[in-house]
Amino acid sequence: MKKFNLLILVALLLSIAVVPVLAQDEVTELRITWYDDGNEGAVLRDLLDQFEAENTDIRVVMDTVAYNVVLEQLPIQVEAGEAPDMGRITDLPRMAGQYLDLRPYIEDPAYWEENFPADVFNSLRAGADDEGIYGFPTQFTVTGPFINRTLFEQAGIEVPSDTSDAVTWEEWTEVAVQVAEATGTEFAIAMDRSGHRFAGPAISQGAIYFDEDGEVVIDTEGFRDMADILISWHADAITPAEVWVGAGGSYAAAADFFINGQLVVYMAGSWQVARFSNDIADAFDWEAVPNPSGPGGSTGMPGGAALVAFETEAGAANPERYAAVGRVMDFLAREDIQREFAARTLFIPGHLNLGEVPYETDLPAAQQALATFTAEIPKFDTQAYLLQYSPIVFAINNPVRDRLTQVITGELTLDQAIERIEQDVADAIAAEGA
Amino acid sequence: MDTAVSTSEQLRSRGSLFRPVIGLWSRFLNLILDLVDTLMAPIQRRLGVQRMAYVFVLPNLLIFGIFILFPMLLNFYYAFTGGTALFPEDRPFVGTANLSAIFTCDNFLEPNSCREDLFWRAAFNTAGYVVFEVGLVIVVSLAVAIVLNRKIIARGFFRSVFFYPVLLSPVVVALIWKWILQRDGLLNAFIVGLGGEPINFLISSDWARVWVILISVWSQMGFYTLILLAGLQAIPRELYEAADIDGANGVASFRFVTLPLLMPTMLVVLVLSLIRAVQVFDQVFAFTGGGPGTSTLYMVQYIYNTAFSNQTREYGLAAAASLLLAAVLFIFTLINLRLGGAGRVNN
Known about the structure:
The complex is a heterodimer.
Chain A: H1 2-23, E1 28-34, H2 40-54, E2 58-64, H3 67-72, H4 74-79, E3 86-89, H5 109-115, H6 118-124, E4 135-148, H7 149-155, H8 160-163, H9 169-183, E5 187-191, H10 195-204, H11 221-235, H12 241-244, H13 255-259, E6 263-269, H14 273-279, E7 286-288, E8 302-309, H15 313-317, H16 319-333, H17 335-345, H18 364-376, H19 382-388, H20 393-408, H21 414-433
Parallel strand pairs in A: 1-2, 1-3, 5-6
Antiparallel strand pairs in A: 3-8, 4-6, 4-7, 4-8
Helix pairs in contact in A: 2-17, 7-9, 10-11, 10-20, 14-18, 20-21
Chain B: H1 2-47, H2 52-78, H3 97-102, H4 117-149, H5 155-167, H6 170-181, H7 186-193, H8 205-233, H9 237-245, H10 250-278, H11 282-287, H12 299-309, H13 315-346
Helix pairs in contact in B: 2-13, 4-8, 4-10, 4-12, 5-8, 8-10, 10-13, 12-13
């Protein structure tokens, strides 16, 4: 009886182990780690459904996570050998060497080279000799300010950029305070808690981040001027302190304050257009304005996200899996798919040759904002490109963000903060090179 | 009578419903026991009954070794390596460079003069937190325990109420209080309702520190109250009666009877709360993220940021900092063991 029981148990365990294996068909399941700014996750899912309908042997699962997870946890996951098949990232050089070179798995690498920016490809490459193609930009982003025009109209104050091509940050601050006071609006002006958002205004004020020898430079008049402006916003309590002061050590956006009509001027960027179209729509008149001017000109920051493929143990063991990744990436990089993605997400496309994108919005504010941001692209300063496509862009931007916060809270003086940023950047470069 | 019959029929039919399930379940349990017996019997024959104890301890030892001992040893190794590589074999040996970076300081009382200023900010923040949080949690827990030890109305209910926050996840506690304290939160609505000006509790360094401590006390006091309550109930009533006969009032009874006899329990509470306070992380991380600035950045978050959250992942520096934290915890644990030993001798 005992042996009989045992036999039954062994049979049961075997069936538990074997049934799932037998149940597996020939479908390859791929995973994408994704984050959303607006509706792009839903749009991508639609496109992947199209792909799956045409390619019944591949299923793509989207793991949508918070943006901070992509910044902080995905690199550790990748380094530990637990990478997803694909992922949407913004810190492009961070995982260089761990991306999958797609050239053997895509139909026409030349198409990719011709239609996507070389800067993005280079940022994903591990060195000067690396010619791999590891992914493509899902969108190109441009930083710049939004204004709540309704508040200007209610205050009876003219929007400065209506009559001048060169409005300074000081002028915007002054006029935003006037509008806030006249309309009883809680906050005049705000900027996302991000070194990337700070960089464009700083360069416009005359800052440089790299000297002629390619060495990192932090302590410049322009940097100090913009830091002083940001600090004064907090000292004068005209900006929501929750964004820079109350967010702990991570990225924080001031978008909610703008959406709720609590903010007159908001420094963010083109990726917010879709969200504003949905969350504000025509509740009030919002629009993008050109980046303010200063001694260094008028520049925003380029940026964007890329969809990359990762080297994985499962792919190394089974090249068919990498081939499946290549088919997904080829599909998503197709011109018609790129056009649909940009049109529905209201993103400036990363694809260089789409022509005019038929954005799917009837909202004049969204059309105006996209046109304004697109017009900003030719005005980008060389320093903006140098910073954005530097392998140590986040190693510069994050200490700038964190140390300036310490100045705002009174823990450091600006001089001490600049010294600390320089040390943090030097330490980061040393640690990476160790 | 009809009702009684129908109830008994219902029970019978329910019993007949459950009988096959119970039968199946006991058959399954028999299967498992047979399997264990089949596996263990030959081992016992080979090792003997005495040594079987080790076999039963082995799974736990393996878990301890894999998830505690091995990471500890690995952490020790990492503390003496540099670079940003994750795997030990890719990490260059740098000797005591990480510890030396931490201790490079012009003036240890001034974090800005230290090379690793954030480490020292975290160290001072943690020290301040430990002193105030532990002090407050002991005083409040003791007061609550004394009240709950009296014959008050709904004593059982209040004991549950004070213990309930202990059951909450630290993240839930943090989110609840964040909603209460934020600019448009419940507390400010109350203050404005009373005609006051709203206070932005979460962006003021001082307020953030205060609230972090108060919330920790609120969420943990139930646990310590329970321990102190057990200590209070162990004090013989005759001693209070004797003190009463000698003319001692309530304060004198507390000072000369309750406090001395409760001291061993309070020392245990002190050491347990000290260890827990030094390790503070999850609740504060979810509540303030270490801010405003670095005003609520505590040691474990510093280690987490340095290793996993910062752009450049300095595992070596983080491991060195965690070694220092482990040293502090080791000292507290020794004190705990010593006090525990002393308590046993006294008993």
